[in-house]
Amino acid sequence: MDIQKSLIAEFDSETESTRKLLNAIPDGADFSWKPHDKSMTLGKLANHVTDTAGDWAVHTLTTDRLDWTPDMGPTTIPNKADLLANFEKKVAEAKSALAAMTPEKWDSHWKFVAGDQTWIDDTKFNVMRIWVLNHMIHHRAQLGVYLRLLGAKIPGMYGPSADEMPAEQPAEVA
What is the rounded distance in angstroms from the CA atom of residue 2 to the CA atom of residue 169? Predict the structure, then answer.
């Protein structure tokens, strides 16, 4: 099995699904809206999904360590059009970094450090799988719930969604 080809294919597939969901954000959506006091705002969550697909992947693939400080907070793009443009730019950078990986680099370690705390210390392969791909999918699912609550139609990620099914098809099948 070629790990490189597998991860590139999975990254392409998952970023395409993410692109579909980001495109489903209603035009003019209020990026300060949040469904609950403990929830992120729509804008913070959408930006986090974009950052995960882009910056997280690029840092993981091109460096051995990220020393995080509070001033490195998340991207705060306030509208859909600029968010999508940033997503495309960051995904292109991540794809380039992914294509440049060599087999021996996958076993090297990557650390995410905040002050004197190490939050992540794992192989680049595991960080790419868990903290980039799975993390993006997790927050993309949260974003789907936000969009549903806002009345937006949800595109299918792994087949048609309930919004894409014919009217005679029971919604619970999707």
Answer: 39
Please report, rounded to a whole number, the percentage of residues in the chain having pLDDT higher than 90.
86
The residues facing 66 across adjacent strands are 112
Closest CA to 112 of 60, 154, 75: 60
Distance from chain centroid for Cα 113? 20
pLDDT of residue 168: 67
Phi, psi of 44 (to 5 degrees): -65, -40
pTM of the full predicted structure? 0.90
CB 84 within 8 A of CB 123: no
Position 174 pLDDT exceeds 80? no
Q: According to the model, what pLDDT value does residue 74 have?
A: 76
Q: How far apart are CA 77 and CA 55, in angstroms?
A: 14
Half-sphere exposure of 30 (CA within 13 A, CB side): 6
